[in-house]
Specification:
The chain has helices spanning 16-29, 46-56, 74-87, 101-104, 113-127, 157-166, 179-192, 214-238, 245-257, 274-280, 286-298, 313-325, and strands spanning 5-10, 33-36, 61-64, 94-96, 132-134, 137-139, 150-153, 169-172, 201-210, 282-284, 303-308. The protein is an alpha/beta fold.
């Protein structure tokens, strides 16, 4: 079986101290990366959490999952990441994308994919300590941190190609049925960029809940799946490529009722088709989840990051470590 690492993603809806404790537990259980979501009006502040987690842990890698350039100026992101890398003794990584509710909830537009490429180039220069021009001013970070890994979250093919040309990895949150094809595309784009095919890490992120009661586990996933369906199926809908009539109607209903101030919350459970759970989530008994993870690994992913669902989240992490990671 291919070598794989496991990560945990946190969207800071709970008390900040609970988020720090979850990261400490994840490290103790053997997870290797801890991703922190960035939507500052609805989730606890990314870099405050990251610094606190950095001080509370010793081995686990820590970073945004993902941040964006519309709200946070690129010089702020570079400074924050260089500082986090110092605090963690080199354990920082940068997850980056165009933005969604972060800018959207305060009336700002996300960046476009072409802008994303410019952002990545500028960020890499800032992290390397190079002088760059922003506006009409030359700027330079006086405490650079070259080599901080950068991972791009995007669904756009052009964004995927940018990730393969310029960065260390790609974060995917789409359907399980498309996973193998997307992995193959990423390997192909990486080769086109004249890099070794395995030079770009493929990170698959999924909401996860494990219970002897499969129905409960599946219900726990629906808030997170609402957003996955909103974006992934919504993209197909916009392009006229969502051919299932029931899916089209469900996406229309989801768009009409989705509340970005309860982003990925259980308030949206009733909007999620049961069929979407298997397409966008990882839920059920331990044996079922373990078998699905084997399938993901066989598709060629490099990292599986789980978003623990259900309460307490600690129980999901413990079950995943015991019943999945140890068996693999």
């Amino acid at each position: 079986m291919s070598k794989i690492i496991f990560g945990v993603a946190l969207y800071g809806t709970e008390h900040a101290r609970a988020g720090v404790e979850l990261a400490r537990i994840a490290e103790d259980l053997g997870f290797q990366r801890f991703w922190i979501g960035d939507s500052h009006m609805i989730w606890r502040e990314l870099y405050v959490l990251a610094g606190a987690i950095g001080m509370a842990t010793k081995k686990i890698e820590i970073g945004p999952g993902v941040t964006h350039p519309a709200v946070r100026h690129l010089t702020v992101t570079a400074s924050a990441m260089a500082t986090l890398n110092e605090i963690t003794n080199g354990r920082a990584f940068l997850g980056f994308g165009v933005g969604a509710t972060g800018p959207g909830n305060i009336g700002m537009n996300p960046h476009t994919v072409p802008q994303l490429e410019e952002d990545i180039v500028l960020l890499k220069k800032l992290l390397a300590g190079e002088t760059v021009t922003t506006g009409r001013t030359k700027v330079r970070c006086l405490f650079p941190s070259p080599g901080v890994p950068i991972y791009i979250g995007t669904r756009a093919p052009q964004g995927m190609k940018i990730a393969c040309r310029l960065t260390d990895g790609f974060v995917y949150t789409g359907e399980t049925g498309s996973l193998k094809t997307v992995v193959e595309n990423i390997r192909g784009y990486t080769t086109e960029a004249k890099r070794p095919a395995d030079d770009v890490q493929f990170i698959y992120r999924m909401p996860c809940s494990i219970s002897d009661d499969s129905a409960t586990a599946r219900e726990d996933l629906k808030g997170k799946i609402a957003r996955s369906a909103f974006t992934h199926l919504g993209r197909l809908y916009n392009r006229g490529e969502l051919h299932d009539d029931t899916d089209r109607k469900a996406v229309e209903h989801l768009r009409s009722h989705y509340d970005s101030y309860h982003h990925m919350g259980p308030e949206h459970n009733h909007l999620v088709r049961d069929e979407w759970v298997d397409r966008f989530g990882l839920g059920g008994t331990a044996d079922h989840v373990c078998e699905k993870v084997r399938e993901f690994i066989a598709a060629g992913i490099d990292e599986l990051t789980i978003v623990p669902c259900g309460e307490p989240k600690k129980a999901t992490l413990e079950s995943f470590a015991r019943d999945v990671m140890e068996k693999l």
